[in-house]
Design brief:
With 153 residues, this protein is an all-alpha fold. The protein has 6 helices and no strands. It starts with 13 loop residues before the first helix and ends in a 17-residue tail after the last helix.
């Protein structure tokens, strides 16, 4: 059974959720809330806001991972820190799809400013961000980054 405080649902057991710091939980909850808003905006046809909320959802989840691993000097203060964390994870885990999924989030961020993506692309990018976030959830079960992880710039 999942507690109402654990927005990941069955993706992360309540016992694992309860071990996360309160700040990590705040970032994860924000990620889920923003994705819900992104889908609402998409249904309303507001592609600019759907895009920004989708980007925010991805960014908040990356911040959550960084916060979870802050004892290993993983940081999240700047946009480039988020990019470097994702690139480091993709390399360490030999999972280039993680990096590619984050590119969809970055496309959404750019679309907030340019507003030039059609609805079907925003929808596809939001789906990629959903997949990206689900790939990050298992990392909350790990006290430290994977072997070979490096958050280089």
């Amino acid at each position: 059974m999942t507690s109402r405080n654990n927005p990941t649902g069955a993706a992360l057991a309540d016992t694992d959720w309860s071990r996360l710091s309160s700040q990590t939980q705040v970032y994860v909850a924000a990620s889920y809330e923003l994705m819900g808003k992104a889908h609402d905006y998409l249904r309303q046809g507001d592609l600019r806001q759907a895009s920004e909320k989708g980007w925010g959802s991805a960014a908040q989840m990356v911040k959550a991972v960084a916060e979870h691993w802050k004892d290993a000097d993983v940081v999240h203060g700047r946009h480039q820190d988020l990019r470097a964390l994702v690139a480091g994870l993709a390399t360490a885990e030999r999972e280039p799809d993680l990096d590619m999924s984050f590119h969809a989030a970055q496309d959404l961020h750019e679309n907030f400013y340019e507003n030039n993506l059609p609805a079907y692309i925003v929808d596809l990018d939001l789906r990629q961000v959903d997949e990206f976030r689900s790939k990050l959830v298992p990392h909350f079960r790990k006290a430290h980054p994977p072997r070979g992880f490096r958050q280089g710039h």
